[in-house]
Design goal:
Elements: H1 11-29, H2 33-41, H3 44-53, E1 63-67, H4 73-80, E2 85-91, H5 97-109, E3 117-120, E4 135-137, H6 142-152
Parallel strand pairs: 1-2, 1-4, 2-3
Length: 153
């Protein structure tokens, strides 16, 4: 039996990630932009992070918020493979616009509502902030989350 990939990535999303994040980080890390895009859009890291999270709380049925959800790959895997009820927030800081739009596209392509990922802005807080979450995780860079945290409250 062949298992479906955990993350369905439309070609347009892949191409955009190669052209944006892949190109940017290629200049910093000297790793090929296509390898970087495959890493950013792959399921390996979300599974590794799920393994760590499940040491502390079962993901199945858990309400989970990821602050700084990037492209949304964690959310997709954690929902579709582990049964978590996911939501994500991405800051409106410079450089995050593409990630937010791509995350919503990836959510739709993977059978999840695009509205599960929201943009936190200086003027508007995320709509689900008064909701209760079993798990709140921030798996990306701390600097990005300091910017987002000011927009959450």
């Amino acid at each position: 039996m062949v298992q479906e990939p955990a993350i369905v990535v439309p070609q347009q999303v892949y191409d955009t990630v190669v052209a944006t994040q892949g190109t940017y980080y290629e200049g910093l890390s000297h790793v090929d932009r296509h390898k970087l895009a495959a890493d950013l859009l792959g399921e390996t890291k979300p599974h590794q992070q799920a393994s760590v999270l499940q040491r502390y709380h079962l993901l199945k049925g858990a309400r989970l918020l990821e602050v700084g959800c990037g492209l949304g790959t964690n959310l997709i895997v954690w929902s579709n493979r582990y049964g978590a009820d996911v939501a994500g927030v991405e800051p409106d800081a410079v450089g995050f616009e593409a990630s937010f739009k791509l995350a919503q596209t990836l959510m739709r392509a993977n059978g999840l509502e695009a509205e599960r990922v929201v943009h936190a802005t200086r003027r508007k807080a995320a709509p689900f902030l008064k909701a209760s979450f079993d798990i709140v995780v921030s798996a990306q860079r701390a600097r990005a989350h300091r910017a987002a945290a000011g927009r959450l409250g």
